[in-house]
Write a structure and sequence with these properties.
InterPro entries: Self-incomp_S1 (IPR010264). By secondary structure, this protein is mainly beta. Helix content is 14%, strand content 47%.
């Protein structure tokens, strides 16, 4: 009986591709381009998932839902390019998970690209905060 219970719990922890998170917290990362008349290149990945290349036009977004792993080491990193500028950053990690957590299964971590940098939405204060400046694109 103990073996069946352990295997069931292990299966719940490993099944991180479902939309209903049972043991760990669920999150939604959303990235939106807020630069008028421009396309922004975005490539995001974790250790296990490569989410591919995306060219976002003005007001277009890319988003994904996931369950945080049991050890809370889930990390998504993205590379952004726009107008001969770029930036690499974590859009989700342990610290951002604490900031985005809102006690439900759809804890939002929202990001926006703007002409002066990349912004993160603070759910608690309902304000956009500039987190990163664009860097000149390396050749």
């Amino acid at each position: 009986m103990k073996i069946i219970l352990c295997l069931t719990l292990l299966g719940l922890c490993v099944s991180s591709k479902t939309f209903a998170c049972t043991i760990t917290n669920g999150f939604i990362v959303q990235i939106e381009n807020k630069i008028p008349d421009s396309k922004v290149f975005v490539h995001c990945q974790s250790k296990d998932d490569d989410l591919g290349d995306h060219w976002l036009t003005f007001k277009q977004e890319v988003h994904w839902h996931f369950c945080e792993n049991f050890l809370k080491t889930t990390r998504y990193r993205c590379h952004f390019e726009w107008n001969q500028k770029e930036q690499d950053l974590d859009v989700f990690n342990k610290d951002l998970g604490l900031l985005c957590f809102m006690q439900d299964d759809n804890n939002p971590c929202n990001w926006s690209t703007m002409t002066d940098g990349i912004y993160w939405y603070n759910n608690n204060t309902t304000t956009w905060l500039k987190r990163y400046d664009w860097k000149p694109k390396s050749i």
